[in-house]
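in:
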């Protein structure tokens, strides 16, 4: 059922409107005795999920007993991050999801179905895993707020991804990420229906009907001055809620370009991006826009590691971002990578497949570390003198030197694509 739906490319939903829609929905649901919220983590700071969670706490009071950030493979939030994202919501309510433990498997999507939707690229079954708290916590409402935005693994982020991946387990996360990678990122990003989404929808329909999940989905866009605006708000418990949000996100968050980009500068806010596991959004979200033999320069002052998980960090350092054929060969030959398919998927996603160059300018990783995983390196301070993110405007910039560059201030908020590449769903940038 769809309880609330509002949105357009020009909409600017105020905080008061958002809270009014939430209150209207909560009243329509009737009294609740025990409420769980599963918001995204700090990597989705701008999603408005923090404000939604805070309002739910104010509305339900002590009936809201637990907040379980949908970490997936990410590290737990610090106290300062909780304050930044969730305001004065009590820290005592927050729980930590461990993707290697505390899991319940609701069922398994048959291998035949996974093979069918993947066009034969994989032939394994898929476990619908969630944090045990969702199943055994005795909740009569599970609130899942988050932002719908183009995503490299599933096409459009959120909806049941927040449940099955955000609170999911090692096997489910590994297999879903690998499915998306081998199917082809260019065939997935920005699409409403993908093989990964089909698998998660199968799990929702067949294994999760007894979980009282309510989705609160936001769509964010930018004003002309670069500030974010809430363009859409969709509240419901079924696929219509997601599909309405995904349709709007496709309008709002995909920048279609009529020519491929020769040089792209991406800035990674140090408060959000500490690892290439997250920072490679700079690659994922621009690779369909970059021309063959183009150049991507990533300004990453907060970069200090490759993977937020120690095991994955080690695998990235060992194998590097060297393209699909190399990575698939290593998966076949090496047990450590075969047992961590989400890392293998990430290595595929983070490669240019040899089409364009990727230069990282990190704050806290060395030249040897950056080049060791297959990227090019340039000193951050040197590059900042030429490409100052405080002086660049979103999109095209004509520099005093006459150089023309394209600037992206936060790759997490959208997808940039050369129209012909997007429509073809290929890796060709020209």
């Amino acid at each position: 059922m769809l309880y609330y739906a509002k949105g357009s490319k020009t909409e600017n939903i105020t905080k008061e409107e958002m809270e009014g829609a939430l209150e209207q929905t909560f009243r329509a649901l009737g009294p609740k005795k025990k409420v769980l919220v599963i918001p995204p983590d700090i990597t989705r700071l701008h999603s408005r999920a923090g404000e939604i969670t805070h309002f739910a706490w104010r509305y339900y009071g002590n009936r809201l007993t637990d907040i379980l950030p949908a970490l997936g493979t990410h590290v737990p939030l610090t106290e300062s991050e909780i304050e930044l994202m969730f305001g004065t919501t009590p820290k005592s309510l927050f729980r930590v999801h461990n993707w290697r433990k505390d899991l319940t498997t609701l069922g398994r999507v048959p291998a035949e179905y996974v093979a069918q939707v993947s066009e034969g690229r994989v032939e394994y079954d898929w476990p619908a895993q969630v944090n045990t708290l969702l199943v055994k916590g005795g909740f009569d409402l599970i609130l899942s707020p988050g932002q719908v935005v183009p995503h490299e693994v599933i096409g459009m982020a959120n909806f049941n991804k927040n449940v099955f991946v955000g609170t999911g387990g090692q096997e489910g996360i590994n297999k879903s990420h690998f499915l998306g990678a081998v199917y082809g990122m260019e065939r997935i990003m920005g699409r409403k229906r993908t093989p990964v989404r089909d698998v998660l929808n199968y799990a929702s329909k067949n294994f999760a009907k007894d979980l009282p999940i309510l989705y609160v989905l936001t769509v964010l866009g930018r004003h002309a001055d670069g500030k974010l605006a809430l363009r859409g708000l969709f509240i419901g418990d079924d696929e219509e809620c997601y599909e309405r949000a995904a349709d709007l996100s496709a309008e709002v968050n995909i920048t279609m370009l009529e020519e491929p980009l020769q040089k792209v500068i991406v800035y990674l806010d140090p408060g959000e991006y500490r690892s290439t596991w997250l920072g490679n959004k700079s690659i994922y979200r621009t690779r369909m826009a970059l021309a063959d033999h183009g150049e991507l320069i990533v300004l990453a002052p907060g970069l200090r590691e490759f993977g937020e998980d120690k095991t994955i960090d080690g695998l990235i350092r060992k194998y590097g971002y060297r393209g699909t054929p190399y990575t698939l060969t290593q998966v076949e030959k090496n047990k450590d990578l075969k047992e961590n398919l989400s890392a293998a998927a990430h290595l595929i996603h983070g490669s240019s497949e040899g089409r364009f160059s990727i230069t990282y300018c990190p704050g806290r990783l060395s030249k040897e570390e950056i080049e060791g995983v297959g990227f090019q390196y340039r000193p951050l301070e040197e590059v900042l003198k030429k490409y100052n993110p405080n002086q660049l405007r979103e999109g095209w910039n004509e520099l005093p030197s006459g150089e023309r560059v394209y600037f992206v201030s936060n790759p997490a908020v959208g997808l940039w694509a050369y129209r012909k590449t997007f429509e073809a769903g290929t890796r060709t940038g020209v």
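note: The mean pLDDT is 95.
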